[in-house]
Amino acid sequence: MFRPSLLVGGNPSSWQEAYKEYFLTRLDLRYFNPIRILQERGTFQGEGFSILAIQCTLIEFLESTVQGINYRYLRRGETLGPYEYNSSQEVFLNFLCNRNPFANEFDAPIARDFYSGVRCGLLHEARTKNGWTVWAKSPDNTLISRKQLIVYRDDFQRALDDFTKWYGAAIQSDIAIQEAFIRKFDNLCQ
User: Fold this and answer.
1) What is the 3-state secondary structure of the chain?
2) Residues 10 and 177 sit within 8 Å (Cβ to Cβ)
3) Mean pLDDT throughout 60-81?
């Protein structure tokens, strides 16, 4: 196991190994490979909803990993501890508005509408809401059409891939990301 070798500010090759062996493998097996199967075998008759639902669950994981925070359901009278959260909305919006390449297309109002109409619509009601539709690919490599309220699932996936590559490079030297990774890693592996 590589966990003992993960020292904040430590050897970049140890961090690269953690990224590849734990983070990227986890994403590939649980998220990216199922998405690729749906994309490759799809008939454009509804699989876009499944792809986008998977992508939406991934967004919260990615942002919470970058921040090193962990979800905790609060029972009556309980309070959050350090590095805990209990509401997905702000985590989701943070990702869309602050992480490239998403931040190039999302501002707070469109991110809130996306959260409500796409993320919550798909995950809670198995449909999009507020006029949002899902298409496979944009004509110009954009993630969304703000005017038509279209999300382009394949372009969205490309953006997730780009973000994941950025994270793989950043974790090798960014101390804040390393500290956050350790908090997330320790929580997931307990």
Assistant:
1) CCHHHCCCCCCHHHHHHHHHHHHHHHHHHHHHHHHHHHHHHCCCCCHHHHHHHHHHHHHHHHHHHHHCCEECCCCCCCCCCCCEECCHHHHHHHHHHHCCCHHHCCCHHHHHHHHHHHHHHHHHHCCCCCCCEEECCCCCCCCEECCCCEEEHHHHHHHHHHHHHHHHHHCCCCHHHHHHHHHHHHHHHC
2) no
3) 95
Q: What per-residue confidence (pLDDT) applies to 72? A: 92
**Chain segment 41-58, per-residue pLDDT in tens:** 878 788 899 999 999 999
pLDDT at 153 over 70: yes
Question: At what angle are helices 47-67 and 88-98 packed, to 10 degrees?
Answer: 90
Read off the pLDDT of each residue in 128-147 and give the average, rounded to a whole number.
Answer: 96
Domain boundaries, the chain: 11-70+85-189
Distance between CA 14 and CA 72 in Å, rounded?
Answer: 29
Say if CB 19 and CB 38 are below 8 A apart: no
Q: Is-contact 130 121, C-beta < 8 A?
A: yes
Give the amino acid at 106.
F
